Write the structure tokens for this entry.
Amino acid sequence: MRITSKMISSTYLRNLNGLATDLNKYNNQIASGREFSKAAEDPASAVRAYRLRENLSRINGYSSNVTYANSYLTNAESVLNGMESTLIESKAKILQALNGTQSQNERRIIATELRSVQEQLLQSLNSNDFGIYIFGGSNTDSKPFSTGDSGQLVYNGYNVADMNSNVTLPHTLEEIDWANSEYGLNTTMPYRYDYVGELEEVARPSAMPDPTDTATYPLGESDPAYTADMATYLASVATEPDPTDTATYPGGESDAAYITDKQNYDEYKSYDIYQNLLARRDANRDAFAKNTLNYNLTDPSADDYIGVIDEVAKPSAMPLVENYVSDAEFNKAMDEYIESVTVAPVKDDYDGGTESVAYKKALNLYKLENEYPDSTDTAKYPLGESDPAYLADVAAYEAGMPNPSDYCSGNNSTAWEEDLEAYRVSYMAANAAPDPTDTSLYPLGEADPAYVADLAAYNNSVDAAVSAYSTTLVPTDSRYDPAAYTAATAKYAVESVEYAEYKAYDDAVTQRDANRDAVEDVRAAALQKRLEDDTLYLDIGLDVEFANDGQEVVDSSVFKYSLTGLMVMKAGTTTVSVDNGLKTYDLEVANNLYDMLGQLVKEFEKPDSEYSYDAANAIYGVFNDSTAVVVNNMTLIGTKSSYLDFTESRLDTLTLNLQERQVDVEGVDSYKAIINFKTTQASQQAALQMGNYIIQSSIFDYLS
């Protein structure tokens, strides 16, 4: 092979350029500490290195978040420490004011100092860290706490004391007494108010018994006759009539009985289907009303959860409270009225002797007006129960008691028997009995068979006459007038229906109001829960998860680092019992420390004539217990900080591990890189020196 000067020159230049490239490569390795600077140099290692750097960057972000959260918690703890010191001082001032030796002016001075403590608390609650309010939850841009027109504490626009801390937000509506678990909070809201459309009314079958027919059924649906007739009717329409049943319908489909039974059957089936649809529609409407109360606090479409209630007037016989002097008298009258319209008249009460209401009242009255003899009264009865005077007085007392038979009615009463006996005597006087001394008729006297037969016939005629008389006897004596029972029954039939209608209306109104209150309670609880749970969170490497189609962050996958205002200041009120020696009464005390101090201030500012030590002491008792909330939150901060310290240590370890793996993947051996650099540098210098011998000047001139 022929080697030309041009070939020698080209090879030399290519090798010289390669040395320069290697020299640059080793120089970059030494400067950057990395094995390669371009992915093309080692694609597999470059991909691994990229992932490692990405993980390192993410962990650095987690570490920054941890550092920020720790700083936030440190500032919050510092604020709470200051609050704790302030509250300890305020306790000492309150105890000083509660000292019985303090004068009115001295209490007012302490009250002024406590107002200053209130201001300090408010400032602490509105503390901010680099423009971010510490206790505002997600409200980081404006002061979360303020005071309303009444001077009470307001948090993010809501009065803290007004929140009902005793109401728990239900997870399903079945926790409310009127709810159905089928329609829980997470149920998809219905899109229609009426699931079965508008229903055309179907008339009541003509053959069906009508409970509103008071002439036939005085007691309406509770009337025994209605119950029996309804059972008979339902049995008659339970099965479709069979025209092939020639025993029942000899004429088949043209039989008149069959045509009537078939018409009744068809009418009932249509009516029954209509009633079932109506019940289903009403149930769906109720379900819709319940279901509209969801976790997002969507207002129900109607304010009335049980339909429109037409007002029903009070029954005319119902007692009115304004007609009674005292509540006790009204309550007694109301109880008697309710008993009269809810307990049907019992016939025994009108002809039952000792069971008669009239007899019981007369007996009680007799016992009140007449004292039973006391056998222990030795001055009056020396011999006690065996004393003749005692026995005589007991006999007189018992003889004067009402006679139960006088309180029976009809032919059970004494008056009735007296009337019949008088007729018997008069009949016997008008119709002489057989005379056994008439020997012409009865030779054997009373033993004569003819006399025995005639006497029996005579007695039978007397009994028959008395019996006939009893059937025509018109009872005019009120003691055995059965009209009293009849009138009471008729009166009950009317008034019980009136009362039942009013009671149903009153119960519906009560239930409606209870439902509205329940909704308000749930709404208030949901609001409070939202304010309590409202917080700031950070991603510290717990693998953030989302729920509800990405609309909600799963709590366990993030770190909640902020404290809401309601965690520091409890919501709602507490009822405490106050006993001032004269009476015991309930006192509403706010659960938050700011308002409690305000209540104490108002009490201490009162003049001696109005100041109540017992009330102030009761408020202080709640205040003293509630100060623990500050310590509890400091403990919570300590727990969070410890967790962050652990997380920070874990992230540091992860960082070191990733850095070691990064060095293994793309790190360069410094000693090897320096040796390679020096070797290449020496080779380049030698090559440059050899260039003068290999390439002639004329050639360089030619190349230039």
